[in-house]
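Reopening this ticket.

The earlier resolution said the output was attached, but the attachment link was broken on my side. Pasting everything inline this time so it's all in one place.
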Amino acid sequence: MIIEVTEGRDGGGDETFAERNAHPEDRGAELFRKWCDSKGYRCYRIGADPKDGKIPRYWELPEVVRFLPDFVLDRKGKLWLIEVKGSPNLKTKEYEKLADRESMYRPNYRYAICWQGRIAVMTTADVASRYERSSVVGRWGDGKEYRELDLEDLWEDIDLTGEKRQA
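Inline output:
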């Protein structure tokens, strides 16, 4: 099934790159930070964020720079590289790069899908498997194709109260 998307919905997962980056905040990253705070984990932004406006013509940078993981997560003394996605929609181009990313960043590399107040954290193998099983295929207005990952068995609600726990 192909879904043509012409308007964005809550969470920005169905918006084009330009539409997503017109929002002043990175919704997925903000949810990830809140999740880390609620768990008492420390996280550090390492990847460049096109939303902060600090890098003009960000899209002209080499892919190796643009596609750095988004965060380093310090969880109970172990460091993890985290790629944060703001929706369960994975672009075909991202799927095609999963193996390269895994070989470059393993073993402590994970995807965190943060959407609508929930989070799902998984390995690249799990992301690839869910992408391959997905029958929901969409195309944004700019022609980029994606598949919606089924995450119902992985979703965890994020505590949005802002209260911090001790790790």
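Reporter confirms the inline version is readable. The radius of gyration is 16 Å. The first strand starts at residue 2 and ends at 4.
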